[in-house]
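Hey, can you fold this one?
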Amino acid sequence: MLSSPRRLLVLDDDPTGSQCVHDVPVAFEQDPEILAHALKEPGSTCFTLTNTRALDEDDAVALNRSTLAHFLDTLDADDAPLHVVSRSDSTLRGHVIAEPHALADVLSDHGVQVDAFLFCPAMIEAGRYTEGNVHYAVVDGSARRVEDTDFARDATFGYSHSELAEFLAEKSGGAVQASDVLSLSLEDIRTGGTSRVEEILSGASNRSWVVVNATEYSDMEVVADAVTHLEARGHHFVTRCGPSFVRPLAGQSGPRILDPADIRLSPERREHGLVVVGSHVGLTTQQLDEVQRRGQLTEIELDVEKLLAPEERDEHLSQTVRAVHEGLESNDVAVYTSRTLVRTDDPVESLDIARSVSDAVVEVVRRSRDALPAWVVAKGGITSHEVAHRGLGIRVAQVTGQFFPGQISMFHPEDAPDAVRDCPYVVFPGNVGTREALADVVERLQNATG
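Sure. Predicted structure:
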């Protein structure tokens, strides 16, 4: 792969999007000074967690605009070139049209006209790839067009098309015409190589959409090399992608799978770690059952009904915090919310319940910082963000690597409270991994502790 002076600013709409890269900083805030420091060197990459998949479109657009605008205001004219990535879901959920346009608008305000949006939703490790302009997801061992999966029936971000030009037309309400969408086919990439990709991309202008077909990393590496050549000649792109394409854009050519030497534990901390489980998807419950079956942990349940009862909430939280402190003296501890999901027919009330439970999980973690657990694992996408940022107070962390290819990153806190800075933090999405994966991660951390 070609080396590039480009600096890569990745606005990540979900807390778990850095699972295909290593040795890059992740900012849990959009502070422009943090981003400027992380991206001061040519060739550097930084993720900032906007979490906009949890916001409505207007709020998502506003956050994208303010994040990029404030960062651009810190730049000098002689800084290395910038490439902005809108990182999102590999199954096409999210504000696909609005966020890239918001970023392009800000770049335009700063004198940069975007030639094209590169649309590459692949996540190779999870079996999500694009071929013949159709996006596929492997489900239960079989490749399916994503329109035929549960992802397409998402209550907020559902869709009817997995042919990506038609998908873009659908999500834009017709503002993007399918016939206007350009394509980098596998034949273009593999037979024509970098020169053919450059030829196609050099003809893109006025924010054209370009579908990037990819079934393996080498396809994306060819495209990244072509982008490097074109950026050197003054072309400008904004990328909308899943996790995989970030790796070649960042100049990385392979994963870092963590071995025991990578899991560095501080002798100043306790010998035991903390697992925090907030996700309610079925796989998470199965994974928690497997941890419990192996008998590896002291289990502490946050009773959701008590958390929702004003007269019981505070005392239940205090009891839980005491139990965490006591448990960590002699064993690893798992804190999890009761598995019965409390909800009502009122969407607003259901959201309030979810927030109240999430706030309780965060409060338990925040009040357990000074117990100095050897490590912390957070299970669930939103949970991992809230626990890291509000519970542990992490502002910036470094992605050390992953426990499995493309899955389950370990972070090393850098800008964080003293009680947290030397505590390895594991980001474990809710609907990821085998039934045994959570227990395997805990076991590897336990072995490192021992």
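The two ends are 40 Å apart (CA to CA). Let me know if you want another pass with a different chain boundary.
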